[in-house]
Design a protein that fits this description.
Blueprint lengths: L3 E9 L3 H12 L4 E4 L17 E5 H10 L2 H4 L4 E3 L1 E6 L5 E5 L9 E5 H13 L4 E4 L4 E7 L2 E6 L4 E9 L6 H6 L3 E17 L6 E7 L2 E7 L5 E8 H9 L2 H11 L7 E4 L3 E10 L3 E2 L2 E3 L5 E2 L7 H21 L7 H30 L3 H15 L2 H11 L3
Parallel strand pairs: 1-2, 1-11, 2-8, 5-13, 11-19
Antiparallel strand pairs: 3-7, 4-7, 5-6, 9-10, 10-11, 12-15, 12-16, 12-17, 13-14, 14-15, 17-20, 18-19
Helix pairs in contact: 1-2, 1-4, 1-8, 8-9
Bound molecules: flavin-adenine dinucleotide.
The site of flavin-adenine dinucleotide (FAD) has 32 residues, from helix 1, strand 3, strand 12 and helix 8.
């Protein structure tokens, strides 16, 4: 049998959340193993844009500063200073401007692969962090004060804490017997990179259509990344259109706010579901990111919530270590769960509320949402609160 390698923490899943947690813990002197099944290709053609693009909040930016990747990603980060949200079936319109808060921007648009590459580079330089990639966790076994993890190639790793950062179909969650409540939105998100007639003006745009929200996110090269959520049948119809037909449909759905849509790259369709785990922790085990919550992408909060989990769990472990407490013990881990569960659930419910409110064709609801948007737009204190929450501040 292979000799067991020993760590403080084993993180199953090296997506953005798992890698960020590893970077912060590694910098604080923890011995960390990260297991990632997928071998990423960081050799992308110049001028290409990843289809996975995120609106990164100011709170996530501060985690990236602490993780040591912000200098590496900043050149590719497109700041958005304004946000415009409006309703397709009425006159509701709201405009957020970072200048009203005295802030330089509301957040940044960043490609997933740019963040991932910077994180991999940082953890590679941390002596306490070992990245096993490609490596898939195969089995877990709690053995008294340690968790044992067996990799598919037979290697054995031991740690005081196992973290499941392995995404929405989390194997760690399944191993712990933690139930996840899943509901299918019956929608797909269609993502693509497009060129528009008029400049995006460093603004994140979102139009609520009866079939689902359509977002245009401003990219550093002047193009936009779109996320068009639609009922599955409609999404399939849009996928089947040729490029010219799709650009025309997109321009119309977007109210031609940026003129004509001139060009569209590859299109990708992703199923949307809402999911939350009933518990985030068990003895010697914690879940972070999509492993414990999946939200509708309409406000671009998914990875940002996961990064808040990573920050909170890292703080919890640092405090436990300072007090010489066992980092894998349930009372310690419950502190993390208490701190994050409420915020994640509240965000999920707000996203759901928006989805249903804006998806409704019922006249009083249409009237209420138009009035609501216009009232909020005219009430700076409320608007500023919403802006701060959206920035993760
Ligand atoms: C269309 C769309 C648009 C979105 N836009 C935004 C946005 O603008 N802003 C935002 O904040 N969020 C957005 N999200 C949400 C965001 O994509 C997710 O919340 C985020 O990717 C979750 O990160 P994660 O690290 O928790 O999980 P993942 O990204 O799923 O990473 C999990 C990793 O674990 C690995 N893994 C799984 N099982 C194993 C195993 N057994 N052993 C080893 N490795 C394993 C996988 O290979 C994977 O790399 C969007 C989502 C969608 C669908």
């Amino acid at each position: 049998m292979a000799a067991k390698k020993d760590f403080d923490v084993v993180i199953a899943g090296g997506g953005l959340v798992g890698l960020s947690l590893a970077a912060v813990l590694g910098k604080a002197g923890f011995r960390v193993a990260v297991l990632e099944a997928r071998q990423a290709d960081f050799d992308w053609p110049q001028g290409s844009i990843d289809l996975r693009v995120y609106a990164i909040t100011r709170a996530s930016q501060s985690l990236f500063v602490d993780a040591g990747i912000w200098p590496a990603v900043q050149a590719n980060a497109a700041p958005f200073r304004e946000m415009r949200v409006w309703d397709a079936s009425g006159s509701g319109d709201i405009h957020f401007d970072s200048a009203e808060l005295g802030e330089p921007c509301l957040g940044h648009i960043l490609e997933s692969r740019v963040i991932e590459k910077a994180l991999v580079d940082v953890v590679a330089d941390l002596p306490g962090v070992s990245l096993f990639c490609p490596a898939r966790a195969k089995a877990f076994d709690e053995q008294g004060e340690r968790q044992q993890v067996e990799l598919q190639d037979g290697q054995l790793l031991g740690a005081r804490l196992l973290v499941g950062a392995d995404g929405k179909d989390s194997m760690v969650r399944g191993y712990a017997g933690i139930h996840a409540r899943v509901s299918d939105y019956g929608q797909q998100a269609l993502v693509a990179v497009v060129a528009t007639q008029y400049p995006h003006a460093e603004t994140a745009w979102q139009r609520f259509l009866p079939t689902g929200p359509l977002a245009f996110l401003p990219l550093a090269d002047g193009r936009c990344s779109i996320v068009w959520s639609a009922d599955s049948g409609e999404a399939r119809r849009l996928m089947e259109l040729d490029d010219a037909g799709f650009c025309a449909a997109l321009g119309e759905a977007f109210d031609h706010r940026l003129g004509e849509v001139l060009e569209c790259g590859e299109r990708l369709m992703l199923p949307l579901r809402r999911q939350y785990a009933e518990r985030y922790v068990a003895p010697r085990l914690a879940l972070v990111g999509d492993a414990c919550h999946v939200v509708h992408p309409l406000a671009g909060q998914g990875v940002n919530l996961g990064l808040k989990d990573a920050r909170e769990l890292a703080d919890t472990l640092l405090q436990a270590r300072a007090k010489e407490r066992d980092i894998g013990s349930l009372p310690v881990l419950r502190r993390y769960e208490r701190a994050r569960k409420g915020d994640n659930l509240a965000t999920m419910l707000v996203m759901d509320g928006f989805k249903h409110l804006f998806g409704s064709r019922v006249a009083p609801l249409r009237w209420a949402r138009n009035l609501g948007l216009n009232l909020v737009d005219a009430a700076p204190p409320v608007k500023n609160q919403i802006m701060r929450a959206a920035m993760g501040l």
